[in-house]
Amino acid sequence: MSETAVACNICGSSYTLPEDEAGGNLPHVLLCSHIFCSTCLRSLESPQNVITCPECQMDTRIGEEGVDGLEVDSRIIGLIYTARMNAKKGHTGDKWKSQRFKSPPSSAAVHTQENAEGRPDVVKVLDEALGKATENLSQLDKLHKTLSNGIHAQLRKERTRIIKEIDEAVDQARSVLQKRRSMLVSKLSDVDHLFSDGRKECKKMEQRIKELQTAIQKARHVRQVPTLETYCNLDEILETLHIPVDVESYDMSSMSLCSGLSCSIQMDSLVDSLRNCLKITNVDDDCILEEVTVEPLQHVEKSVVEVWDSSSQSVSANADPIPKKKSTCRPSFIEEIMEDADTSSEIVEIGVSHSSPVPDPRRNERHKAHRRQRRQHFERPLTPAPKLVHYVMATHIVNPGHFYVRYMMEQKSGQKLTKKVNEFCSADSSLFTFSDEIKTGSMLFIYWKEDMWCRVTVTELFQRECFQSVTKCLASEVSRLSVYFQDYGFSKGISIPSDGGLSGLNGCLRRPDANTLAEMNGWAPLAIRCSLKDIIPADLVRGWSLEATDEMRSLLGSEAVEMQVFGEDGDALLVDLKKTPMVSLREHLVFMELARFYSPIVAPGSAPLLFYSSVRPALNVEVNAVVSHVNTPSDFYVQLVENMEYLLLHSKLQDCYSRPKANSEFQIYCPSLSQACIARYDQEWCRVQVVGFPGGRMVEVRFVDFGYRKTLSVNDLRQIKDEFFALPEMALWCSLNDVVSPQETWSDEACVVFKDFVERKLVTVVAKKLVPGTRPMPVCLYEVGDDCTGASIGNILVKNGLAVSSKQTQLKDTQAMETTIWDPPFEEETLSAVLTPPSSVSEELQPSLILPTCLKDIKVRVTHVTSPGNICVQLLQFDSQLKRIHDTLKSLFSKSEPQEILWEAEMYCAANNTGVWERGQLCSVSTNDVAEVLRCDFGNKVKVHVNNLRPLSPDLIGSFLLECNLSGVRPAGGRSTWTATACDFISHYLTGAMAVMTIKDPSARPLLVSLFCSNRAGQNVSFADFLISEGLALKERKAASISETAFSEECVLSEKISEPQRHMSASQTPPTPTPRINPPPERVQTHSYPPPELPPCGHTLMNISAISEQGVIYAMTHQAVCEFDRLRERLQQHIKTLPRQKNYNWKGVLGCAVMGTDMFWYRGQVQEVIGGHVKVQYVDQGLVESIPVCHVYPMVLCEDVPQLCVPCQINGVIPIGKGWQWDAVVLMKELLLGRSVEVHIIEHPEDPCGCVKVEITVDGMALSKIMVHHQYATFDPAISSQEDYVVKPPVPDLDDWDLNTEGLEEPQPVLGIYKELQIPKGRKHFPAKVKHIRTPNEVFLCVLDKTLCKQEQGESLEEALLRVNKNIEDLSLLADFPIECPCLAEYSDGRYYRAKLLGFSELTPSVKLLVRHVDFGSDDIIPTHKLRQLPASLHHFPCAAMYVKLAGFKPSNVSLELERIPYRPEWSMRAMMEMIDLLNGELTAVVTETEPQLTVLLYNAEGTLVHRPLVEKGLADYA
Question: For a 10 Å CB count at each end of the chain, is N or C smaller?
Answer without folding.
Answer: C
